[in-house]
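Please predict the structure of the following assembly.
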Amino acid sequence: MMISEIEKKIKEVVAFKPKDQKSFEEFRINFLGKKGHINYFFSEFKKVDSSDKKAYGLAINELKKVTINKLENFKSKFSSNEKSNNKKEDLTRPLSVLELGSRHPISIIRDKIIDIFSKIGFNISEGPEIEDDWHNFTALNLPEHHPARDMQDTFFISKSPDLLLRTHTSSVQIRHMENNKPPIRTISPGRVYRNEDISARSHCFFHQIEGLYIDKKVSFSDLKQTLIYFTNELFGKSKIRLRPSYFPFTEPSAEVDIYWGLNSETDYRITKGTGWLEIMGCGMVDPNVLENCKIDSNDYSGFAFGMGIERIVMLLYQIEDIRILYENDSRFLSQFKKSI
Ligand code: PHE
C-alpha cells in the first residue's frame, strides 16, 4: 500500500541526522532530487484509487514538509558547503591584483647617500629628535644668547628640563664625539624641525644628513676631495665650488655649489641663470667643538658637512613642491616603484 510506504519515509526523515556534509547531500538528493522519493510518489499519484487520493496527497505533502524542515534545520551547519556546491566559481573573472608597495623617494635618496659614504668607510650614527640645548646649540659653539641661534627657528618644548626639537643633525656630531674616540668617520641621517612657514620650498620638518670626519692632520683639501667624490657618485657631476660662509661650529665654513649646467629651460630656472646650485654646508670643525667633546684640538682636526635630503630629492626627481613629499598620495609614491 502506497500510503504506508510514504509514512515509512516520513519516519525515516524525522529520524534522520546527517553526520556530515556528504550524508546531508545524499539525503537531499534521495528525497528532493529529480529521481528522489517525493517526485516518485507524485508520479504514482495517478495510479492511486480515487477514494485514497486525498489521503495520499496529504501524506506526500507531509513528507515534503518534514523533508524541507529537516534540510532547513541542518542547512546552517552545512551552509558554506551548500554555497560552494550550488554556485560555481566564475573562472574567467580577472584576478584582483596584489599591489606592491614602493619606497618613499626620501628613503631612496637617503639610502643612496649612505651607500656612497659607506664605501669610503663612514658608519651610520643616529640621535634623538627631542634634544637638549647642549647638544643642539651650546656644544656646537652656540652659547646662550649667541645671535646665530636665530639662524634656525626652534620649536622649544620646555625650559626645565630643557628640551627642544633638534633643528639640525649636527647634534648627532656631538653625541658621537662624546661616545667615540677618533678616528671618527660617521654619517647621521635624520629628521629635523624648524618653526617655519610651510610653502612650496620649505616645511616645518625635513630630513638632513650630517657627515663628520675627525682624525690627525685632516685638512680642508680632504674635505674638498670627499665632496668631489660624493657629488660625482650622486649626481654624476664633479664640478663644485666652495663659497665662504658662516656656521658657528665650523671654521672656516663654506657653502657647496655644484655646477648643474644650463642645458634646459628648467636648468635656467632652478639655477637662476647661473648654472650653479647650492647643495650643502660644510667646514672644518671648530676647535671649541672638539674641546667641548673632550677631544684634544692640538692633536686632532676634522671636517663636517650637512645637507637637506628633500632639496636633493627635488633636484634629482624634478619635484617642484616640497609638500607633495609629505602627503603620501599613492599616485605620487607609486611612481618610485622601479627604484626599489
Ligand atoms: N647644520 C647645518 C645646517 O643645518 C649644516 C652644516 C653641518 C654645516 C655641518 C656645516 C657643517 O644648516
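The chain has two domains: 2-83, 105-339. Residues 168, 170, 210, 247, 250, 281-283, 304-306 surround phenylalanine (CB under 6 Å).
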